[in-house]
Design a protein that fits this description.
With 135 residues, the protein is mainly α. 77% of the residues lie in helices and 0% in strands. It has helices spanning 3-15, 27-38, 45-62, 67-78, 81-93, 99-134. 13% of the residues are buried.
């Protein structure tokens, strides 16, 4: 299957979901649908994973959501959270799930994302302070 064909299938499946609007909270739904579609593609596991990530990244970039939400979705993709989530899903489906590892993984992913968000917020506050001081 070619990328464009698979991407078209992904868009069609998501359009079938009544009232679906992409945001950082339901990015995992997009991941689930994408994994289900790519499952039947005849590729090695690491190539399937790369395909899933590329498809979701394209879907987010092509979406018409506001820029803040798009940036947050892309941050989740680019910081490795989605990558680790795919590994978690694969491990769960193969019966290789160690619950203590999941808790550690989830904690570290959340901590990384929270740190990035707080850094962005601090930068914006500093810019506003500087702008006020100039007047």
């Amino acid at each position: 299957m070619k990328f464009e064909h698979i991407f078209s299938e992904l868009k069609n499946k998501i359009e079938e979901i009544d009232g679906f609007e992409l945001n950082s909270h339901n990015l995992i739904k997009v991941l689930r649908i994408t994994i289900e579609i790519v499952e039947v593609v005849n590729l090695p596991g690491n190539e399937k994973k790369r395909l899933v990530i590329d498809l979701i990244k394209r879907f987010v970039n092509d979406s018409k959501i506001d820029n803040k939400e798009k940036e947050l979705c892309l941050e989740i993709i680019n910081n490795g959270t989605l990558d680790e989530t795919i590994d978690l899903v694969v491990d769960a489906s193969n019966g290789n799930l160690d619950i203590n590892n999941i808790i550690d993984l989830g904690s570290s992913c959340c901590a990384i994302l929270l740190k990035k968000l707080l850094e962005k917020k601090d930068k914006k506050k500093k810019k506003k302070k500087r702008a006020k001081l100039k007047f």
